[in-house]
Write a structure and sequence with these properties.
With about 325 residues, the protein is α+β, with helices and mostly antiparallel strands. The protein has ten helices and 18 strands. Helices cover about 30% and strands about 30% of the residues. Strands 8, 13, 14, 15, 16, 17 and 18 form a seven-stranded mixed beta sheet that branches.
């Protein structure tokens, strides 16, 4: 059996850099060493390089190769685990498409669309059983009259970057007085932002993946935060959030959720693994879509690894099938 060279790509240009590094460490530990030779490639705004024990070896961007001990290393596969740009928004996907190197994520078009929360909502909101919160999209170049925002939507409101992850730059505001600071915070992360009505209910997240040609919905996780909402601190600070996998939901509700998220995956033309976040509205249990994450976190404690284990699956087999499935297709 020939060992394949895998470029495990981590880092990125955003505040999620360290989250990406942690994801890469767990993936590297769970890629079968009998099948794959893994090279962790770190990407930042200044450099792309193989993070070996020394000073690092730079990537030749002309063909995405390495020169190691006088020998050229080409890659059979790119395992992208960058959260945010350029690994989640389609930029790297387009680059690898041009080089003919298969990768684990959605294609360039889907990655770009799903990175944009407003565009994603517009595509999925006609799915049967799926609801979306009322919202406004604001651009930094335009004037922002807080009175118009306040008159258009009902408080409380979430203000968040339209293109971003890990809840960086996100705020919850309860009245007009809180809007200016929240808008400024979100615009610090992105030049377009989403102002969205708060949906009160239980928050959940579920992974969807195509394995052996079939779409598999993983066990649902309920996210119970001691904070007012699931922000960056709640996601990454121990003890702030309780994550219950599998979630305490009746079988018929789990079936309904599986049908909705499968349709989201298909409607957006997702590939590999994706994670869909949603709220079940208090009182009615209606499904309210939050967002889809096409490069979800993969640290040992992250939601997808939790859900893979809860499904009784082996994480090494799961990652291996993501690699082999993408190479086959």
């Amino acid at each position: 059996m020939t060992t394949k060279n895998i470029a495990l790509i981590a880092g990125g240009f955003t505040g999620e850099y360290e989250v990406s590094i942690n994801s890469a460490k767990n993936i590297a530990a769970n890629l079968n060493p009998d099948k794959y030779r893994v090279y962790t490639i770190l990407i930042n705004r200044n450099r792309w390089y193989f993070a070996n024990d020394g000073a690092g070896v730079d990537i030749d961007k002309n063909d995405f190769s390495l020169l190691m001990d006088g020998k050229k290393v080409n890659f059979d596969f790119a395992f992208i685990t960058i959260h945010g740009t350029p690994g989640e928004d389609g930029k790297l996907q387009g680059y690898f498409d041009m080089l003919g190197i298969p990768y684990n994520t959605c294609d360039a078009t889907t990655s770009a669309i799903t990175m944009n929360k407003a565009y994603t909502k517009a595509i999925v909101e006609s799915i049967h059983g799926l609801h979306t919160a009322r919202s406004l999209r604001l651009f930094q170049r335009d004037m922002h009259d807080v009175a118009i925002v306040a008159a258009s939507l009902h408080f409380p409101l979430f203000i968040k970057p339209n293109n971003g992850g890990s809840s960086v730059g996100m705020s919850k505001v309860y009245n007009v007085a809180g809007l200016p600071e929240a808008l400024q915070k979100a615009f610090h992360e992105d030049d377009q932002i989403l102002v969205e009505e708060f949906i009160k209910g239980r928050e959940f997240s579920v992974g969807v993946a195509r394995l052996n040609g079939k779409i598999i919905v993983l066990p649902v996780t309920e996210i119970i935060s001691s904070k007012d909402f699931f922000d960056y601190e709640a996601k990454y600070s121990p003890g702030v959030t309780e994550e219950v996998t599998p979630a305490n939901l009746p079988a018929e509700k789990i079936d309904q959720i599986a049908g909705i998220v499968t349709e989201v995956y298909l409607r957006l033309n997702c590939k590999g693994m994706a994670r869909i976040d949603f709220i079940l509205l208090e009182g009615t249990e209606d499904f309210y879509f939050i967002e889809v994450n096409t490069t979800p976190g993969q640290s040992a404690a992250s939601l997808i690894p939790q859900q893979v284990r809860a499904a009784g699956m082996d994480l090494m087999e799961f990652y291996g099938e993501l690699v082999e499935g993408a190479i086959r297709h």
